[in-house]
Amino acid sequence: MNKIGLLIALVLIGAGTGACQSEGDKVAQAENDYRAKLTDVQSQKDKEVQEQIRQYVEETPNLYRITWKVCGDYRTRKRDGVRCSETKIPKTKGYVDPVYVWAANGVQFVNKQHFVNSYWTTGLFVKSKGCLNSGKPEQEQFYNVKNFTRDKTNPVPTAANVKIEALSKQEKQTVVELAFKDAQVENYALTNFGVSATTGMIPTGKSCLKLEEWKKMQS
Fold it and tell me: Which residues does 33 contact at the CB level (< 8 Å), separation at least 6?
């Protein structure tokens, strides 16, 4: 017997045979009462989540949006004849999402050898207290937010290719709420299907690596 059926049965037993309501009325009332209770429980849960998010926003450092346009990335599809990794809000086909970090304080690009000898793996690093998607802020240092595959003959990107934008308190609240919802979806996908909800693939490792961790990772 399902939960609704069980509740209806209990209500009918409690109502007794002397009640004025018909059996059909009793069933309908029981269903309505059960749905109302479910709504109340969900509403209370939503309030608790909102309070947790509010506290999280209050207690964490300022949040920054990192956007970029880096051309010559061989992992990016051509757009207008050029391969450029570029952020866009909202993201559309051919573009990528920005990254959000705590207390951003500068950027740098670092090269390491790609498995193809003529390419670099070029990492974009932001000096910050870590990435929003990693959870809690960490110690300030350079964190990897994006990687590009570039021909060694191309010039290395510079800070001019990157924009660091501080979010208002309201923007921070909105971004954190969306990140929380995305994390719930991602956790469900990983738990039930073993793949990422965003890529549809099995995760290959941790993101937002510290510079020294990134250098040790094979490209």
Answer: 7, 11
Edge-to-edge strand list for the sheet holding 107-113: 107-113, 119-128, 141-151
Residue type, 218: Q
Residue 159's Cβ-count burial label (10 Å; 0-12, 13-18, 19+) is exposed
* C-alpha to C-alpha distance for 69 and 160, rounded to whole angstroms: 9
pTM of the shown model:
0.73
pLDDT, tens digit, 9 for 90 and up, residues 49-80? 788 888 889 999 999 999 999 999 998 988 88
Could you tell me where the DSSP H helices lie in 23-73?
Answer: 23-59
Q: 132, 101 in Cβ contact below 8 A?
A: yes
Rounded distance between C-alpha atoms, residue 54 and residue 60, angstroms: 10
DSSP string, 59-111: HSPPEEEEEEEEE-BTTSPEETTEEEEEB-SS--TT-B--EEEES---EEEEE
C-alpha torsion 205→211→217→219, nearest 10: 100
Q: What is the pLDDT of residues 172-183, one digit of tens each?
A: 999 998 888 877
